[in-house]
Amino acid sequence: MEQFAAVKRSKDGQAVRYLIVDDSVFARKNLARMIESFGGQVAAEAGDGLTAISEFDRTHPDIVLMDITMPQMEGIEAAEKIVQAHPEARVVMVSSVGYQENIVAALQRGARHFVQKPVKPEVLYEVIKYVLGEDGAVANVAGAGV
Amino acid sequence: MKMELIQPFINAADAVLSQGLHGTTKVGNLSMEEDAYRRKGVAGMVALTGDIEGRIVLDLEPQTAVRVASHYAGADLPESDGLIKETIFELANQVVGNAVCSLNDQGFHFRVHPPILLTAEEGDKTSEDVEALMICFETSMGNVFMNVALRHNKRRMSDHAAMGA
Lengths: 146, 165
Prior knowledge:
Structural class of chain B: alpha+beta
Largest interface: A-B, 23 and 27 residues
Strand order of the largest sheet of chain A: 3-2-4-5-6
Helix content of chain A: 25-40%
Order of helices and strands of chain A: EEHEHEHEHEHE
Number of helices of chain B: 4
Radius of gyration of chain B: 16 Å
Number of domains of chain A: 1
Oligomer: heterodimer
CATH architecture of chain B: 3-Layer(aba) Sandwich
CATH class of chain A: Alpha Beta
Strand content of chain B: 25-35%
Largest sheet of chain B: 7 strands, antiparallel
Strand content of chain A: 15-25%
Distance between the termini of chain B: 26 Å
Largest sheet of chain A: 5 strands, parallel
């Protein structure tokens, strides 16, 4: 997989920590590989919205990557509950069901961004940088990344 | 079954497979399926409910499924690996999700259900109002079959029409 210039936390220079939420093991592995290529670290994974909430409380990740269609509790509801409890949470919806209705609902309920599946690493990378804003810093390594 | 319902699924499958498999995908045979669906290998089914209802099956012969899943995993997977099923599920999800986006732009509303594995050799027979179309996508890793069976939900559509009147 293509390597990108590492995105670190600007406050301490540590790797950005992610919670990956998707009922598909395949999708979680795919996202984890992308995150590693961005210099990030997987703090936890969850296969449904309910587990996502408890994993957020346990690990306090910098970014949540959240699918929409999942068993038990869907992603938009889980995102809303996480943001209600932790207004600083950065939730990025990652779903193949990216029609306007869903995007608007997700953003209204606290998600910061929406990425359509199949995920292109370069798109997710830009979204991550955008969502982190000043809390993220791209490592300035000569010859690294894109 | 109207082509306006099918075309978004063909476009979505073409895009998802081309992007994921890093190669060109050719749409091969299209055929109407009137008999019961016969599974070819590893098959994931996604159901849709709403203005349009039905199901989409993505079906790969076992060796093709192994090649495709290994490609995504970046390592050779054995035929028994659970990740193979997961890969087919996720591909089915992405195809349906992308197609639904396009149909949603045309005013249709749906709920997409999580994929399930088809384990029976034969599925239900199609009925008079739910015909199934089988589309074969020729990829560098083998043929990927998509079986689409959809129909307009007449009750929902008439509700919309009454609300709009």
